[in-house]
Amino acid sequence: MNKLILIALFFTGLACAQITPEFEIGAKGVFSGNLNLNSDESSAVSDFSDTQLLMGLRQKLYNDWRAQFVLGLQFPDANSNLGEVFYNNIFIQLEDRTNIVKVGRTLAQTNLNEFPTLRDDDAQRFTYALNPFSDGVNTERDQYANVLEYTRIFKQRFFVSVHGENFYDSIEPDDFRLNSMGLTLMYRVPESQQWNRNVVQEVGLSYNNYFTDRPGYTDDFDASVKNLLFSTTINLKPDPINFIDFRFQAIQNFGWDEVSVLNDYFDYTRTESTALFGTFRYLRQKLERPHFQLAFGGGYKALPNLAIDSDQLLFIANGFYRLGENFDVGLQYRYADNKGFTEDLFGKSEHRVQLAIVYSFSRIFNKQFGDREDLLNLEHNYIR
């Protein structure tokens, strides 16, 4: 009798183990000393913004689907009004082999590429379709939104995504209605196959439509701010030891013809603009592990509808060296120049030098599933 009880308990334990969710934790520490040399004044600060903690639970459902819950918190920029901690990821995701449904707060599809910069907002005005409802105080308002998103996957490489977002509105912060919709088409080599270093790593096209209140217009489409994005990553030298790639993104903001003067950040996001940004990256791998990385790139943004000539330039160069498993030190130089109305908003020019330490960690407990990507892939990466 006792043996029967033990056997029953054993199989009960196995059954419980099968329904226990998979648990994943990820952490990223980004610490830098920033020396800013502006045209007006200079400063030196200690910066740990973008440091974050991510936690995820995944559960097999009673069919071919699985569910995932993700909770993430991030330390925002020191001069933001987001408080000490910003919850950057809070969402539920349902997925099977060819479908993904996501509801909650996470990165919006306002940027299609990941550039080799220290922080993902180092080139934000050139690499993101900017939130026209934001006053520009917080970079997170351009990156994150409350999303309702459906993605269909074809042959594990072609992604078609229909998405609606609620971007934060600085004038009506308690308005949670969808104020943006879009469509994204993406070809991307799966994470598990990136070691092959295909020449074309990814190509993407995205359309974002922001439902803004345009004076004198009643039709929602005509009153909207519209952005079209094109992005690609090309492996110029797909060598397993000495690897070189080129990343490029273009953003066309169709904007409003009547905005010819930039009185504030709202005007900046709602006037017509064309932004181009590209980077070259060299990665040296030693014993099949990343050893060090060098990158340089630049961007140009033109605003043709303004009453006086206005444009922006950006140049970034950096290097990261891996001291240990997922532990990097880096040095980055950034130069920004603004002309015309953009000088009034952002200052004439800025030189920034940053000495950084970056540590990333992720671990899966009770692993049950193969992964399209891990938690840290939700956010910005460095050497990989």
TrEMBL record:
Keywords: Signal. Residues 1-17 form the signal peptide. This is Uncharacterized protein. It comes from Flagellimonas pacifica. The lineage of its organism: Bacteria, Pseudomonadati, Bacteroidota, Flavobacteriia, Flavobacteriales.
